[in-house]
Amino acid sequence: MTASLARVLTIEEFLELPYIEESPAWEYIDGVAIQKPMPKTRHLLLQMRLLTEINRHSETHTALPELRCTFAGRSVVPDIAVIPWSQIQVNEVGEPEDNFMAAPDWSIEILSPAQKANRVIDNLLHCLKYGCRLGWMLDPDDYSVLIFTPHQEPTVCREGCKLPVLEEVDLELTAQQVFGWLKIN
């Protein structure tokens, strides 16, 4: 079950809350703080493999797990945020700033059994509205990936369907390959 705080908050009040970075992370949507569900084994295996594959196949972008992205009145924490290295703000000593204040180029969500699909879809649509170029919602129970791109209807990929990736990521994957990572031999 997903926890939420009923009190309406400003985004500034939300970002000052001491527990929002605890696991599982909290998100800010329409004035309300909502805690994401705790990921389970299948979720974590898919997340780990996707992070590894995306990072191995791009020099211009990095895939980061659970990166808080605060922009356009929301603060969301995609399971995987793929962002350009050039968009990471650095401090005076050349290290990355802790707060990422933009939409990721590619937002990947892995649906958990306790998660509401419409809430995840709402976050992906918000990301697309404010600059995200690609969104995936993986459903491990259905072995499908719902694909979101700007100004187009969502599409569903299953089995041998080739999954779209950012053009800067030299990676070819099918839904079958991704969900095949769940098979333990």
UniProtKB/TrEMBL annotation:
The keyword Hydrolase applies. It comes from Pseudocalidococcus azoricus BACA0444. It comes from the Bacteria. One of its GO terms (molecular function) is endonuclease activity. This is Uma2 family endonuclease. CDD domains: DUF820-like (cd06260). Pfam families: Uma2. Keywords: Endonuclease, Hydrolase, Nuclease. InterPro entries: Nuclease_put_TT1808, Restrct_endonuc-II-like, Uma2. Residues 12-172 form the Putative restriction endonuclease domain.
